[in-house]
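Write out the bound-state structure for magnesium ion.
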Amino acid sequence: MMHLKMTEMWATMGSTIASFMFVWAIIRQYCPYEVRRFFEKYTHRVMGYFCPYIRISFHEFMGDRLKRSEAYAAVEAYLSANTSKSAKRLKAEMGKDSSNLVLTMDEYERVTDEFQGVKVWWVSSKIMSPTRSMSYYQEQEKRFYKLTFHYKNRDTIAGSYLEHVMREGKEIRLRNRQRKLYTNSPGYKWPSYKQTMWSHIVFEHPATFETMAMEPEKKKEIIEDLVTFSKSKDFYARIGKAWKRGYLLYGPPGTGKSTMIAAMANLLGYDVYDLELTAVKDNTELRKLLIETTSKSIIVIEDIDCSLDLTGQRKKKAEMGLDDDGDKVNAEAGRKEAKEEGGGGSSSKVTLSGLLNFIDGIWSACGGERLIVFTTNYVEKLDPALIRRGRMDKHIELSYCSFDGFKVLAKNYLKVETHPMFDTIKRLIGEIKITPADVAENLMPKSPTDDAEKCLSSLIEALEEAKEAATTATKAEELKQSSLIRENGELQDDKETAKAMKNNHCQR
Ligand SMILES: Nc1ncnc2c1ncn2[C@@H]1O[C@H](COP(=O)(O)OP(=O)(O)OP(=O)(O)O)[C@@H](O)[C@H]1O
Ligand SMILES: [Mg+2]
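---
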């Protein structure tokens, strides 16, 4: 009897829901927007009394604002990365600024997600809402994601789950965004959509640490240093230090300094600001440029030793004939010294103290998560204040090609990991100095018929030539030294003979 009553009750409820759904479908299809909104409002209110679930909506555009909601974009990125495998209906779109396809949940698709043992449901949906365009109304699609969860999990979801979704979503967006290469050089007229001091193009350098020729341990150490930095937001906050790190890359030309900067940017997904110091008018302009840089970026000053006359203060003193303490010294000698040092023809008024402020002054903390990289061929020429630890935290020397470096290049260029010619190359590379750029050039096939053997022979030839040139140069130097010694000896003998003759003459 009881069972019969329950069955009847379920049947009645079922038919009520079915009739309700039918009426609702008709309303959605045929009724004007106002009537639909009215029904929606009251149905949600009635359902709210019985339903134990909570819903949170993330609308793409809020109110009349034209800007896309950051929360919606983060949810979209999170869902497309985490739940697109379980969704059955997906939408494929070209990523913004990028060339790859992005898969997101299709409209009205529903997926589940789990967090700390709590199950939640996400639905992608849209509503048609009226917008006033010129003088008439038209309907516009408004997309949103709806999150549903049981009310007993309210604290977990509203607290940690949403924070987790936002954080992950933002990280995914940053990873997938098209990165940019900025410059302040007035020579470049790259497209820029707003009036800023920087112009930019899309950053598309293919260098990675994997393709860099250097000792594996050194490479590993640099990668670990960079990754640790990028994950140390809380650490930097705890020790009260701005979240930035300075790298000084030094070494002879063609050893991979610029290549390493590109590899760093690709590893961390950062933008690159290539700062042309000679084009900066003065310290104020330098500060403005700094303020306009964004987080997750690398600010690069290449060839810092020739970028600016950073020893300018001293040169001016020298030109005026003042010594370091400001005392007057031989004016003529001072002017000569200044001229010999190169003169510094740049019209930039940026000073060393302006640059030091740029690196670690109060303003440098704005934005956070930034690397500052200097490159130079002559580290010994730089002012010690500029590169002391704390400013340039990590000094990396990029040097001549080692055998390990050669193996990386051979793998990149020729796809060979071992070859009988490797032994000869190992011996020669140990004997002479050759830059990775020179090795790379020799390994580059010059015609479609050039195979690995041909390229390796060309490298051996170049190494042998370089060895011969080095031997000849050493011999010439030795010869020069010995003739100098001989000349000095003869001079000494002549002096002694003259002295003896003079003594004889006096005695007489
Ligand atoms: N360590 C390296 N690993 C891989 N390729 C390298 C390396 N060093 C140089 N190369 C190759 O040589 C070319 C020149 O290197 P790069 O411009 O990075 O040198 P650099 O040290 O910046 O030189 P400069 O001091 O003249 O600016 C690069 O295009 C790259 O192909
Ligand atoms: Mg370079």
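---
Residues 212-214, 253-259, 377, 398, 436-437, 440 surround adenosine-5'-triphosphate (ligand 1) (CB under 6 Å).
The first strand starts at residue 53 and ends at 59.
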